[in-house]
Design brief:
3-stranded mixed β-sheet, mainly alpha, 21 helices, globular, cell membrane, TRAP_DctM, about 525 residues, cell inner membrane, transport
């Protein structure tokens, strides 16, 4: 006999079984949701009318969600910039600047990937572009192959946490509870310090290798540095200035409140098309530029369709899961853990780390985040309450953002570790045959370790995420009285007395009736005792 308490566990087990078989995740979610939905109707856990919530939520929360329009815009922008050779110019000038020092090409790859991540937001575009440009150069100058493949793959995943990351947009859409929600602008603000810190961590690791293994990261010979002085800086600025303008179009308009994420994505997409048009001679002419645009449309349609189908499947699964009290089941798993919020974050992040061996970030976010968000808000809000001046609403929103940024740093590893590390697949696809697959996989391991270190830092340092967030206003303290004096030239009616209004906000009626004094003023007393 199947009981209601068994249903959430059985649904999760059924989903895992479907995915192990290799069935597409979007259709696995739909199949499991509908299968257990009909079982629940048969067992009397809810009625057939309950399933009406599925199409209502799909058309009301998925199809009509304007925030999700940012996904095709940012995807299209990244696809255009991937082939516009902007990264090639930037990497060439950075290589000339840093090439004289040990690890100079490594530093250049990390910095250019950071800038490229701020204008593309997609891992695939970044890894492919950087590998095609810099891998042959690093091989030519004798860089260690495992370091070379590792830094290219890891630097590509920086796009996951550097705004305008698609992961941050999707997390902002999914981090919602009945009492709080994250927004894209706040997610971007919370991600900046962790993103910069991760760049510093990668560069520190590169510097460490130059100290202990200088032969692994040799400098470029002086006679091969063709640009110097003003010519070098001119070429560097030629790549940096258009990039800075595009970054402002995308991020600056959101931060300043000028545009919504969807509007900024549209401006970024148009800016990328215009930038590619200006560089059409380097691309091979107008025909090649138009071919680039058509290919970008195809990539955007494919990725957007995949996201929408996964989201529809996740919605079907989520509605049925909530119908069988799955939310209470998840909360009970984490609420009574020894160690409180620390144990919660450790267990959740370990679970997601291992789940990322088999699922990509879209599937992880759509399946798990809506289930974990209410629990995260409940457990993490008290941790931030003091730093937000006791404002529970602001602390609850910040707790969701802190949780989301921690997950986004962790989810980076899904691109880096086997068997489904997509960054490694992208790298293998464009690398020459001389690069061994074993070098790609072994080279990724130290960088996965650095990403896990970064996850731990964000977990135990919420101030890194909340530093730029709105702290709100402190709530009114108990026992405070607010008086409003309303002067009037006309004296009040003798029959009605004065116009005095008293509000006592403690949930109880006044203890005794008070005859209003007959004065010439209209006084409103608000008593905020609790």
């Amino acid at each position: 006999m199947i009981t209601l308490e068994m249903m959430p566990f059985l649904m999760f087990a059924g989903l895992v079984l479907f995915m192990l078989v290799g069935f597409p995740v979007a259709f696995s979610l739909m199949a499991v949701g509908l299968f257990f939905g009909f079982i629940s109707i048969e067992m009397g856990f809810f009625s057939l009318s309950f399933l009406q919530a599925i199409p209502q939520r799909i058309f009301g929360s998925v199809i009509a969600n304007e925030l999700l329009l940012a996904i095709p815009f940012f995807t299209f922008m990244g696809a255009v910039l991937e082939r516009s050779r902007l990264a090639e110019d930037m990497l060439d000038s950075m290589g000339q600047l840093f090439g004289r020092v040990h690890g100079g090409l490594g530093y250049s790859v990390i910095l250019v990937s950071f800038v490229l991540g701020a204008i593309t937001g997609t891992v695939a575009a970044q890894v492919i572009a950087m590998a095609m440009i810099s891998l042959p150069v690093m091989m030519r100058y004798g860089y260690n192959m495992r370091y070379t493949t590792g830094v290219l793959a890891a630097s590509g995943t920086i796009a996951q946490i550097v705004p305008p990351s698609l992961v941050l947009i999707i997390l902002a859409d999914q981090l919602k509870t009945p009492t709080a929600s994250a927004d894209v602008g706040s997610m971007y603000l919370g991600a900046w310090i962790p993103a910069l810190l991760q760049i510093g961590l990668f560069m520190a690791y590169t510097f460490f290798l130059t100290r202990i293994r200088p032969d692994w990261l040799p400098p470029i010979p002086e006679n091969e540095i063709s640009l110097k002085g003003a010519a070098l800086w001119k070429k560097a600025l030629r790549g940096i200035i258009p990039t800075a303008v595009l970054i402002f179009l995308v991020l600056g308009t959101i931060m300043l409140g000028i545009a919504t994420p969807t509007e900024s994505g549209a401006m970024g997409a148009m800016g990328a098309v215009f930038l590619a048009f200006l560089r059409r001679k380097q691309l091979g002419g107008t025909t090649e530029w138009w071919s680039l645009i058509r290919q970008a449309y195809k990539n955007t349609a494919r990725i957007t369709s995949m996201v929408v189908f996964i989201l529809i499947g996740a919605t079907t699964f989520s509605v049925v899961f909530q119908g069988v009290d799955g939310g209470h089941w998840v909360e009970s798993l984490f609420s009574d853990l020894p160690g409180g919020w620390i144990s919660f974050l450790i267990i959740v992040n370990l679970f997601i780390f291992f789940l990322a061996f088999f699922l990509d970030f879209f599937e992880i976010v759509f399946i798990l985040v809506p289930l974990l968000a209410p629990v995260a808000q409940k457990i993490l809000t008290p941790v931030l309450l003091a730093s937000f001046g006791g404002n529970e609403q602001a602390a609850a929103t910040a707790a969701l953002i802190w949780f989301g940024i921690t997950l986004s740093v962790n989810i980076q590893t899904s691109f880096m570790h086997p068997p489904f590390g997509f960054a490694l697949f992208y790298l293998r696809g464009v690398a020459p045959k001389a690069v061994k697959s074993s070098d790609i996989y072994w080279g990724a391991l130290p960088w996965v370790g650095l990403q896990m270190v970064m996850t731990i830092i964000v977990m135990f340092s919420p101030g890194l995420v909340t530093a730029f967030l709105d702290k709100g206003h402190a709530p009114v303290t108990q026992g405070q009285e607010i008086n409003f004096q309303m002067e009037s030239a006309k004296p009040p009616d003798a029959s009605s007395g004065s116009n005095e209004l008293q509000f006592k906000l403690d949930g109880q009626p006044p203890t005794q009736a008070v005859d209003p004094p007959k004065t010439d003023s209209n006084e409103l007393n608000f008593q905020l005792d609790k």
